[in-house]
Amino acid sequence: MTSIYARSDLIDGSNPNPLNKVPEVTAAFWLIKLMAVTMGETAADYLNVNLGLGLSTTSMMMSVILIGTLALQFSRSRYVPWTYWLNVVLISVVGTLVTDNLVDNLGVGLVTCTIGFSLLLAGTFAAWFATEGTLSIHDVDNTQRETFYWLAILFTFALGTAAGDLVAEQFALGYLASGVLFGSVIASLAIGYFFLGLDGILAFWLVYILTRPLGASFGDLLSQPTDYGGMGFGTILTSLGFLSVIALTVVAMTIAHRQER
Which residues cross the membrane (predicted)? Predict the structure, then answer.
């Protein structure tokens, strides 16, 4: 049985498994992941508020699109950059909408959502490890592991949204202070991983969760009106800016991936 702590996963440029369905964990991985989660926050707000679709319609529409793109992802025999990152962007939007629906439409508290999604994520990891013997993202090379992987990703986004809103709104820290707080925690985890022997897989998943509220905090800071503590750039400009960075990074990753094959 492969140990849960078999490999270092926070930043590890090696990806020895040619059938792995997810990318190498590099600096580019974290850059595009942060951009994707930030865009997920602003895109959800744009569809829901600016276009006036409402939470329910937006959620159903984005969920249907996500199901289609996930089917495409599962049909691949190995990692394809544009397919993978398209799903990350869409699942970021859907994860945000799941939490927003629970809070705004069903009246579930942010504390309850944060605890609930933490338990769901922990249960997903427990089931994943019990059946596969590893949580390493270097070995997502079969349908069952990929199913656990994407389910965990969905819960990290929903959890990150709930935790970020809890800190920024209910605890009233504001967008900038919340972003600095989550960024400081991520920096502490990086120090623990690189210098203090913190396990790589544990560090990876903790950072993966925390980049969601980090991105959401700065996304709201840029997009929200100044009256609400933001910089007033709006959801359209903010979303397009982050989408451009995502697109350019995916193109670069695709070129690099083809050269390696």
Answer: 51-73, 79-99, 106-128, 148-168, 180-210, 230-256
